[in-house]
Design goal:
With about 475 residues, this protein is an alpha+beta fold. It has two domains: about 220 residues, Adenine-n6-DNA-methyltransferase TaqI, Chain A, domain 2; about 220 residues, Adenine-n6-DNA-methyltransferase TaqI, Chain A, domain 2 (Alpha-Beta Complex), CATH 3.90.220.20. It has 13 helices and 21 strands.
Length: about 475
């Protein structure tokens, strides 16, 4: 049950006579109703309120729920009216519009209008929130979307407000008018109002005031739980990735060899590709110092620089002034095409000529945005693509692309990337710095087992989000 549902249930019990017990010594609503009629005649005679049109009697079909025998259903219009306030001019007062009464704006001053004194109850009769009741916090001119809410002095106005609060959504959902919706006054005045004896009204209001602090406490606890529920799937996802890259998600197996063995194979493959002219020779990466190591990893793993396990690139954009470069032969990816680990391949494309002057990634390469508010957005490409200068890429060698993806989407890597970026308003990490970021390397078979375990567990986190 939400806090609002709990509050509504208390209000419903209150107006149905189920919140406090009935006491014979407090009289009946019928007796109170007679007093209401006497007081109403007196106020009409003095001109305090309008006589108004007679309201039709309540039929059996209109009765919304059962009430105690000592209560009585009457029309809301028999104890309430909407008044205009006192017209005044040539005196400066604050103009009390809705945003002022909600505390969202300072009042402007006017020299004429419908005056209301501090503490006057007003009700919105125009706009989306028609039916909402306010107590005016100071003397002023009433906003044009308001009317004074008159409630008979013979009943407890706080009890009437309980009724109005319970039906607040009902009034809002049954407004009249399209361009400027307003309170349905016929519906308002003809509502069946459950009238208890006056003393019971006081006990009901007192009971509500006693319960509301508990509702507030429940709401705070509920909000914390909701925040926890919202953050838990994401936090669990981050924790799984962190556990994975620390070597704690699956066990180590000696028969799978070591990361040192794998690293040597990767370096041999790089030398072969350089010799074949497939890739260019790179600048040597700086050695790793003990001070750089961020956390412990298994003995069979090793820390390496990102660029040492694959081929890294920064994208570029062929000249847009040369139409020959544009076409439909190979997708051209920008940061906006990378979303939630996926790539939209259909926004832009280059021709074969454009591909020759662009940076190309083969399937299985990993793209990561390296600039601005999208910094860190990452995806694995499933097809050959080209990409712009706001994206870095790595094509892993003899490594599982999904494992490398898990590393560079982890909180650890994102934090390191942010720390290594330049610029404050628009952070950017150049490829030279990106290449040197440290990643933990396990043996290849263990990488595959880690990926398999993540593929089993991460979808459960996604289900929790729903």
């Amino acid at each position: 049950m939400t806090p609002q549902e709990l509050k509504n249930s208390i209000l419903q019990l209150a107006i149905q006579g189920k919140l406090v017990e009935q006491r014979p010594g407090e009289g009946t609503a019928e007796e109170l109703y007679k007093q209401i009629q006497v007081e109403k005649k007196r106020l009409i005679k003095t001109g305090t309120i309008r006589k108004g049109k007679p309201l039709p009697p309540i039929t059996e079909d209109e009765i919304p729920f059962d009430i105690p025998d000592s209560w009585k259903f009457i029309k809301l219009g028999e104890i309430s009216q909407l008044l205009d306030g006192e017209k005044r001019k040539e005196v400066s007062y604050p103009y009390l519009e809705a945003r002022v009464l909600r505390g969202k704006a300072e009042p402007k001053y006017r020299t004429k209008g419908n005056f209301v004194a501090k503490g006057t109850r007003t009700i919105l009769v125009d706009g989306e929130n028609s039916g909402e009741v306010f107590d005016t916090p100071l003397d002023g001119y009433m906003g044009s979307t308001f009317r004074v809410l008159y409630i008979s002095d013979v009943v407890l106005d706080e009890f009437v407000l309980v009724f109005l609060l319970f039906y607040k959504s009902y009034f809002r959902n049954n407004k009249k008018g399209a361009a400027i919706p307003h309170l349905n006054k016929d519906l308002f005045f003809n509502m069946c109002f459950p009238l208890p004896p006056l003393s019971e009204q006081r006990r009901i209001v007192a009971r509500i005031e006693e319960l509301l602090p508990y509702v507030d406490r429940y709401e705070r606890a509920w909000s914390k739980l909701e925040d926890l529920n919202k953050s838990f799937p994401g936090d669990m996802q981050k924790s799984l990735l962190q556990i994975a890259i620390q070597g704690k998600l699956v066990e180590q197996r000696s028969e799978e060899g070591t990361a040192e063995d794998l690293y040597k194979q990767i370096q041999l493959e790089k030398k072969r590709l350089i010799k074949a002219g497939t890739i260019k020779k790179e600048k040597p990466l700086p050695p790793i110092t003990d001070d750089e190591i961020p956390f412990d990893i298994p003995d069979s793993w090793m820390w390496v620089r990102l660029a040492s396990i694959g081929i890294t690139q920064t994208g570029n954009t062929p000249s847009t002034s040369n139409p020959v470069y544009m076409g439909e032969d190979v997708p051209f990816i920008t940061p906006g095409d990378i979303l939630s680990g996926n790539i939209n391949y259909n926004n832009r494309a280059l021709s074969t000529a454009g591909q020759l002057v662009a940076r190309v990634c083969k399937p299985g390469s990993i793209l990561q945005v390296c600039i601005g508010g999208s910094l860190g957005k990452t995806a694995i490409t499933s097809k050959e693509i080209t990409f712009n200068q706001q994206i870095n890429s790595i094509s892993p060698l003899i490594c599982d692309s999904q494992y490398v993806f898990a590393i560079i989407t982890s909180t650890y890597f994102y934090v390191k990337m942010k720390e290594s970026s330049s610029g404050t308003a628009t952070p950017i990490i150049n490829r030279g710095m990106w290449d040197t970021l440290l990643i933990p390397l396990p043996p290849l078979s263990e990488q595959e087992r880690i990926v398999s375990k993540l593929e089993e567990l991460l979808p459960l986190c996604e289900k929790l989000k729903k």
